[in-house]
Amino acid sequence: MCTILTESDFDQVESWIGTGPKTFNLLYSITRDGCDTSVFHQKCDNQGPTLTVLYNKEGSVYGGYTGLSLESGAGNRNDNSAFLYQLYYSGLNTPKKYSVKIGQAAICSAPHLGPLFGSNTAYDVLTFHSIVQKSSSGEYNLNGDMQTYFGRNYDTAGISSKEFNNGHIRVTELEVYAVKDVKRKTPALPTPWRKTAEFGTKMLGCLKEEVKGIQPPEGLDVPHFNILLLGPLGSGKSSFCNLVASLTPYTFGDTVSLQLYDTRGVAETDTLDLLQCNFILDGHVPDFYEMSPTHLLKCDDAEFRHQAALKNKIHCAVFVLDGLIVGDMSKSMLQKLLSYRDLLNRKGIPQAALITKIDKLCEQSAENISNTFLSPAVKDLVYNVADLLNLPRNSILPVKNYEEEMESDENINILALLAVRQILFFAEDYLENMKDKQSRSRGNANSGQAHSDVRGSDTA
After folding, report:
1. What would the pLDDT profile of 134-144 be if each residue is shown by its tens digit?
2. Of 46-50, 318-322, 365-369, 426-430, which gets the smallest average pLDDT?
3. Do residue 148 and residue 260 come from a single domain?
4. For the chain, which terminal residue's Cβ has fewer other Cβ atoms within 10 angstroms, N or C?
5. So which residues are the signal peptide here (predicted)?
C-alpha cells in the first residue's frame, strides 16, 4: 500500500465527513518533520478540523478525524462529528467508519501527547508521546496504545485492534491534514497509486542499502531467505532470476541474503503436482535438482532430504504472471495456481505475485518505466491480479525484465529492487514467526522438565 492518500481515498473521507467538498492540506508528517509532540503541536494546533492518517508495512491505512481545532492544553473534549476509520487492511481496500459514542470524549490534547482519540484515561487511539526515533527497519515503533481501551469511546462494531491495525503501532508514516470547506482542485499530474521516492540514482542507492540490510533473524541457522518462483510457461521466471542475479554483486555484497528457486513452468497439462510442490516447500528437494514429468522425486530416492531443517524450507513463494495475458488466463490454469496458493496458505507460507512485461501495457510505462506507479493500466492490472489470487494489493509487484536492452537501466533495477525488498519483508516476517514459535516451544519444554524434576524430588 502507498504511503500517501489517493484522490479516491480523499473522496471516501469527504463522504464520511458529510458536509460537502473538502480540501486536505498536509500539516505534519513524521518522515518529514520527525516524530516529536512539540513539532506536532507547533504545526497542527489551531488549524481547524484535522485528519490523522497512519500507515504500516503490512499495507494498512487507518486513523481518525475530528471537527475540532487541536489545542495543546484543552484536555478531554466532546465532538459528535469525530470518527475513527480504516481505508486499507493488509493492502486490501476496506473502507470503514467508526463514529464516536454519544456523550463520550472524542479527543484529548496535551503538550506531551501526539494525536489522541478518546479520553486521557481511556484512549481508543493514542498514537505517541514525547519523541520516537526511526528504527533501523525504517519504521517508527510508536509508544502509544491502540489496544487497551480500543472501542471504549468509539463504536468499533466489536472489531479487535488487530483487525484495525494488525495488532501493533509500528508505522512507516503518520500524517495530519487540515480539512477545509473548499472544493479540491483536479491535480495537474496524476496521483501515484503506489507512492515511492522519486526514481533516480539516489533512490537506487537507498534501495541497495536497505535490501542489503534485510537478513534472516539471528539464532535460526538460516543463511539466506529461500524464495520459490511459480508461474505459467513464458511468464518470465527465468528472466527475473537473471535480473536479480545481475543486481546481486553490487546490492548484496559478499553475503547474499536470498536464494531463488525456479520451477518448471506451469502448463495446462504437464505441470508440477502438489506432492512435488509440497516436497519443495518442506525442504526435501536438494538444491539444483531438476524435476521433469519423467523424473519426479520420491520419498525413497537417495537424493530425498529426509531431515529438512528450516534453512532448507521455502520462506516465501512468488507467483510470476505475464501482464499481457493474465487477463485471458484459462479457468484451468487459474485453478492450478489457486491450488498452489491453498497449499501455501495451509502451511502459513507468505506469498507475493510478480507481474512482468508491464512496459507493454501502456505508452506511459513504455516511454519511461519510472511511470509505472502513475499508469492506470498497471494499477488496474495489479488490482485484478490481487482479486484473482485473493492476495493483498501490496503483495502484487510490477516489474520489467531485461529483453532487448544492451546496458543496465536504472529504472528497471529500481523496480526490481522494490519487488525484492517487499518479498524479503514477507520472508523476514515468516522467519520471525518461526523464531517465536521455536522460543515458545523451548519454553514449554523447559517448563515441563522443571515440573518433572520437582515431581521427582517429591517422590524421592
Report:
1. 998 889 999 99
2. 365-369
3. no
4. C
5. none
Residues 6+ apart with CB under 8 A from 324: 357, 360, 361
Q: Does residue 210 share a domain with residue 271?
A: yes
The pLDDT value recorded for residue 56 is: 94
Residues 6+ apart with CB under 8 A from 428: 214, 216, 217, 225
How many structural domains does the chain have?
2
Q: CATH code at 308?
A: 3.40.50.300
For residue 254, what pLDDT is reported?
58
Domain membership of residue 287 (yes or no) is yes
Cell of 264: 518448471
Other beta carbons less than 10 A from residue 297's beta carbon: 17
Residues 207 and 117 in one domain: no
pLDDT higher than threshold 90 for residue 195: no
Contacts of 66-69 with CB under 8 Å at 24 or more apart are 66/106, 66/107, 66/117, 67/17, 68/106, 68/107, 69/45
- Do 151 and 270 share a domain, yes or no? no
